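[audit] Reproducing an earlier prediction to check determinism. Same input, same settings, fresh worker. If the tokens differ from the archived copy the diff job will pick it up downstream; this log only records the rerun itself.
[audit] input (208 residues):
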Amino acid sequence: MSKYSHNSNYIYYENTGIPISKLNIRSQSVLEAEERKLLVEGYEYFHKNLSESTTFDESYFKKLHRITFGKLYTFAGKYRTINISKGYSTFCQVRFLEQTSKEIFNKLAAENYLKDFGSRTKEDFAKRISFFMCELIALHPFFELNGRTTRLFFNMTTTYNGYEYIDYQDTLKIESGENLFIKASVDCMTGNDDTMYGIIHSGLKKYA
């Protein structure tokens, strides 16, 4: 079953949580392998094309999703049109999604899309990333692949500022039945970005 609660059958194969793909993949494991391959290619593409003129705005965010996963999904790069929830967390309702997205990216624009942190403290950078990370997690604008797209988005901002990709390796592992990144994401839904800040701060490292 899908990791999300939803009310649509046209995104998923009937009675499954497997999204309908252009490749008609019905196996969860095969689909996940294809998503991982495309994500690697996405990182390579966007890293290669990163420049002074790159603007980390809403269009760029959608472009990350569209170009990275467009070979697989027709909904790539498009905001969802149904309400979704996970566990006790309900993500931004569709009727507010476009407006809320604009508000988030207007806030980013007011901070020059986090492009001025190359010479500022790691703590300041981690605070702003964790704040906006939580904003986009609560927005959850795509049908699928929100977390990976959001991490890709902020890894491009860290690269721009002279940092390596954020190291999430330990936090994405499941230990004692708990995934720390998922816990941080749930905390985000309550307006608490402290756990996410700890993850970002720990995982940030300047290029040597």
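[audit] rerun output stored. Observation attached for the diff report: The beta strands are 85-86, 89-90, 174-175, 178-179.
[audit] end
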